[in-house]
Design goal:
By secondary structure, this protein is an alpha+beta fold. The protein has one domain (about 10-55). Helix content is about 20%, strand content about 30%. The protein has one helix and three strands, in the order βββα. The termini are far apart.
């Protein structure tokens, strides 16, 4: 895997338990800052669908 540039939400800047995302032209990678070696790879379409579901509250408990 290429050298990825990871970003995290501004609200997590000083926290050790944050989601991190790296975007390339071909894929979007997601990981937890607690488990940086466990990386999920999504297509751009899957990423957009995930964001839409989160914004719609589909994962709210």
């Amino acid at each position: 895997m290429e050298n990825l540039s990871w970003a995290r939400p501004a609200a997590c800047s000083n926290s050790g338990n944050c989601p991190e995302v790296a975007v390339t032209s071909e894929a979007v990678y997601i990981r937890s800052s607690l488990l940086p070696d466990a990386i999920a790879q999504l297509t751009p379409t899957e990423w957009r669908e995930l964001l839409s579901a989160i914004r719609a509250g589909e994962f709210d408990v």
